[in-house]
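Methods — Computational structure assignment.
A single polypeptide chain was analysed. Its primary sequence is given first, followed by the predicted tertiary structure written as structure tokens.
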Amino acid sequence: MAEFIISLFGDQNLGLQVLICIYGYIELLGFGLIFNFKVPFKKKVWLRLAVVFVMTIAFMMISAVIRWWLIDFKVPFNLTYAGIQMAYYLLFIFILYDVKKYDYLLNFSALMTGEILVGKIFSLSLNLFGKNDFETMSFFSDVNDVRDWTIYIIVHLIFTIVLAYLMRNRTNLFLTKKIKRNIVIISITTVIILTFITPISRSYEKESLSLAIMTKIFLIIICMLILFFQTTIFAESKREKDVYIIQELMHKEKMQLTTLQGNIDVINAKCHDLKHMLNSLETKITKEELAKLKEASDIYDSTIKTSNDTLDAILYQHQLMCQNNKIRFSVMADGECLKFVEPTKLYSLMSNALNNAYEASVKVEEEKRIIDVNIHKNNNFAVIEVLNYVSGGVKFKNGTPVSSKNDGSNHGYGYKSMKYIIDEYNGNLTTSLNNQVFTLTIFLPLPDNKSE
């Protein structure tokens, strides 16, 4: 087949360059599709794939002619070919994938770096076996096309899949000014390295086997560093997103706390007035009617008092929720030991803990619908314990309970919000599960003036 393709072009050198470009662009196309397996396609994907296929053939021919024309000029030859490959991947991403501007830059940077990394790993392996990768792709003394191509494809496929998995979270980033700046910097760095350093070093790899090995090791390290810095961008984006969502949740919770405290004040005032009115109505209504009205007004007397107004409001809210769902809500709380916690943060912390307990409790049989809250001072710590039964157990990942909701990726921010607040106070959070009883324990170090 190779001899046939070369013979079609009359000029053997031109035919050889065409053959090299056919192999090269098939590899570029395959790597791009596999590496971007998690990146969403644009609409009319089959039409776009057809366009990419035609574009690939065009780039093959253009690259072959330019390589043939510059064959005697090593550095311009490699620089030009590298630039054309970059242009190919820029168009490849633009035509096929539905990505935003900064995701586009990061995707291009990762795609080019990954493709060069995989190629250098394979060619370095050949060099370490004493083979010249300019002359052969076989690890053996003899040449067997089926065997050698099978090894080549399998090795490239394995490394491509591994890289694609490691770099799968490079789209839909949460973009801050810092992350945008980092994406631009890493993209420019990638272009400089891949446009100049890689092709220039390739020009001198023929001089000796030892120089080829050292050059490839250097480029592999550079490529791995670029990909590592890209993964730090993914991690930073996730952290920024988490912080943004947590702050938004806390802002909403601050508004909820203000509304709740206002509603409780109104309810308590009305219940207090109602009790006085009932005393004057005892001789005017039946005992049954009086008993029902007193039962309704008892909500005022049942309000939990902990010496902490914010904590009282939270416990009162969840006490009503539990009453409506036949959940026994048991509280022993010293609110004084939590007065150093900012009201909004205390509301967020306790609401998330109690909401999780409430959601678990409504799923168990009625006799196990119990939420036990214990807040006390222990040495130099304020300790918050929330116990409740769970149905079917709790899955943990890295010590963190996993959301039981269908879309776990969009949930779990309640727990993250709790961790965020606890970390602010240099505290600690632990969870445990024993005989279907889930225990959440929070330790918050008391300020010096509270530790006496």
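Note: The beta strands are 328-333, 370-378, 381-389, 396-397, 400-401, 428-434, 437-445.
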